[in-house]
Design brief:
Length: 366
């Protein structure tokens, strides 16, 4: 049985008994705001290039269905409202939800903004400041394109440059390999891998229009339309793989660039790839962010406001076995039912020495 049909089966069975809500209550999901995360919102998935990164796109039709489902069960609020309530400690008396987007793709402006505006739904866009206004592919898109264009040749090239795909990762294909490399290598090492892959396999194709980042005038238009603009770093490294000076630079540069362009303070930050540890969290605090968002359920006990969980959605998140939007799968997903089976295995605590280096760097920018 495929993972999708298993998920759909569990969803259908649980929805009949409303057990998803019971499990939601037991896992604590219904006591905390539902914050959903998206990357790209596209016209249709069929119009996407075959080398585009999967699991990062939702069609505008499915996006609207997901929002309508959430809107019937939760009140949409801004991240500022969630943040204020978190700091005050006051409990929510009704289920609330917030919508966020990572990476600053241009298609969100074209396809998601009209859907949000028509429904009066607030949202937040986390942008990568160095990418804004350029015509380059983001690192993860470039890497995925190089791997997916000809996967057997890419495996041979990876072996030649000494980045041997772990057996399991190689078997699972380009997307798993991309995630593995981004999660375990520094930005400098990834740049080297890309350079070598382009040398051995030929350069990555030019960025298709659909994969381009926002321009600054679009960011300002989103801001004027009431979309909160948050930081997603300057160049999108996974911060847990970087040294403290680079982490601080990414956090400070990106915040300053957005504040300069929109003329308003930036309080919200999203960790690239959800990568955080205690040292990174303390650097985020020192850089002046009030709230930060992850991609798993783990919290930093000293900074719960800087490790706020989100739930990522894409086209296939909530489909039944026949590929149609499934309200029962959506219910299980938002209530954290699948979290019981899939857990984050990342190490979020760091040794005292790395923490001390980060804190010293934070004091220096103080
Ligand atoms: Zn990202
Ligand atoms: Zn985690």
């Amino acid at each position: 049985m495929s993972r999708a049909s298993l998920k759909a089966g569990v969803g259908a069975a649980l929805a009949v008994t409303a057990a998803d809500r019971l499990i939601g209550a037991l896992t604590g999901m219904r006591r905390v705001p539902l914050i959903v995360g998206y990357h790209r919102v596209v016209d249709t998935l069929a119009s996407e290039p075959p080398t585009a990164t999967p699991a990062m796109s939702v069609s505008v039709r499915t996006f609207a269905q997901q929002l309508d489902w959430i809107g019937r069960r939760y009140r949409f609020v801004t991240l500022d409202e969630i943040g204020a309530r978190l700091l005050s400690g006051e409990r929510w008396t009704e289920p609330v939800a917030a919508v966020t987007f990572d990476d600053g793709y241009r298609d969100v402006y074209h396809y998601a903004l009209p859907v949000l505006t028509r429904r009066g739904i607030p949202a937040t866009m986390f942008v990568i400041t160095d990418a804004i206004g350029t015509s380059s592919l983001l690192t993860h898109d470039r890497l995925h394109l190089l791997l997916a264009r000809d996967w057997p040749s890419a495996c041979r090239a990876l072996a030649r440059i000494g980045v041997l795909p772990a057996r399991g990762k190689a078997a699972r294909g380009p997307f798993a390999m991309m995630r593995f490399l981004l999660g375990t290598r520094s930005q400098r090492e990834i740049a080297h891998v890309i350079q070598m892959l382009e040398h051995l396999l030929g350069p990555a194709d030019a960025a298709p229009e659909s994969l381009l980042p926002l321009a600054w005038d679009m960011v300002r238009a989103l801001d004027r339309a009431g979309i909160t603009i948050g930081s997603h770093t300057h160049t999108h490294p996974v911060l847990t793989n970087e040294d403290h000076a680079h982490v601080v630079e990414e956090l400070v540069t990106s915040r300053a660039a957005i504040e300069r362009e929109i003329g308003a303070p930036v309080r919200h930050f999203a960790y690239p790839d959800g990568g955080f540890d205690t040292a990174v969290v303390s650097a985020v605090a020192a850089a002046g962010y009030g709230f930060a968002y992850t991609t798993c359920r783990h919290r930093d006990p000293d900074h719960p406001e800087l490790t706020i969980p989100r739930r990522f959605l894409w086209e296939n998140s909530c489909l039944d076995a026949r590929g149609r939007f499934s309200p029962s799968v959506m219910g299980c997903l938002t209530n954290g039912v699948y979290d019981l089976a899939v857990s984050c295995r990342r190490r979020h605590r760091v040794d005292a020495e790395r923490l001390e280096r980060h804190e010293a760097a934070a004091r220096a920018i103080g």
